[in-house]
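Much of what follows relies on a compact textual record of a protein's fold. Each token is a code from a learned vocabulary of local backbone shapes. The record below shows the convention in full.
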Amino acid sequence: MIRARKQSYRTIREQEITTEPNLTPLIDVCLVLVIIFMVTAPMVMQAGLKILESQAGTSVGKHAAEENIEVILTGDNKVMLNGQEVSWQDFPVRIRQEIFKSRDKLVFVTADDRNRVGMVVEILDISKQQGAKKVAIISKPEGKG
């Protein structure tokens, strides 16, 4: 009879529930999420234009004025390229020629307050497509023009 009790005690002991948590499914889920984020992160990043904005009233820049390309968008939506009026159709060709001649390939854009942002962005985009290394938006000092 004593033997029967030992056997029953042993079977209960073997069937005890383990109290340690099983971390394998948690680790698997975390690794899958990391892989999903690694794959989707480059798709979420959007391409954009990097622009340099000058502060009004700054002193002389590091580039000489004759080496730079200056684009002015007037209030009546006319484009001036280095002081000469250019049509919208001729602008990509003319700016490519100017960028090719420029050593630093730096384009400064000045726009009137009445211009739409879309037109300024289009000028910046065309400039980058035609080979400009850097583009900058020049703001007018208060009290001028």
Summary: Residues 51-137 form a domain with the Nucleotidyltransferase; domain 5 fold (CATH 3.30.420.270).
